[in-house]
TrEMBL record:
Domain of life the protein comes from: Eukaryota
Domain UspA: 12-160
Protein name as catalogued: Universal stress protein
Pfam families for this protein: Usp (PF00582)
Amino acid sequence: MATTSSDEKQVMIVAVDDSEHSSYALQWTLDHFFTTLPNPIFKLVLLHAKPSATSAVGLAGPAYAGAAEVLPIVDSDLKKIAARVVDNAKQICSKRSVTDVITEVVEGDPRNVLCDAVEKYHASILVVGSHGYGAIKRAVLGNVSDYCAHHAHCTVMIVKRPKTKHWIYTLATLHLYILQQ
């Protein structure tokens, strides 16, 4: 874990992408670490790992005869997506009056990008959302949070979105409680 002077804030990196899980993890983090304190103890870094155009195209990429024409278009689209992801994350922060935020987009595999960023920023905490994949999907698609938990040189907080059924039950219970009052 990184050590800091009394004047310097510890760094918390939040991984952001275009998923609901990522948005929830960011909102949860802001609500629990930034908006509840008058002077948060963390410096917030929002990090998006942008895939390379060749990895997005996949196996057909270099072998594909038209790859030279396709790759610049794919890269342009990936840059637009990355800009949208970062803008959405900044809007979530702004809505919660969190304005002291560093944003960064780094091209590469999210597992490596996140672990490298932990070293670059000397982060104390890395926050990632959980997609809630089952064992088979995790094995096929890989698991960024699991990789980071084992390889990042800091605390890794995996934020899992509650199941909808749980929220419906909680809301129904709260509604019944209010009606009884």
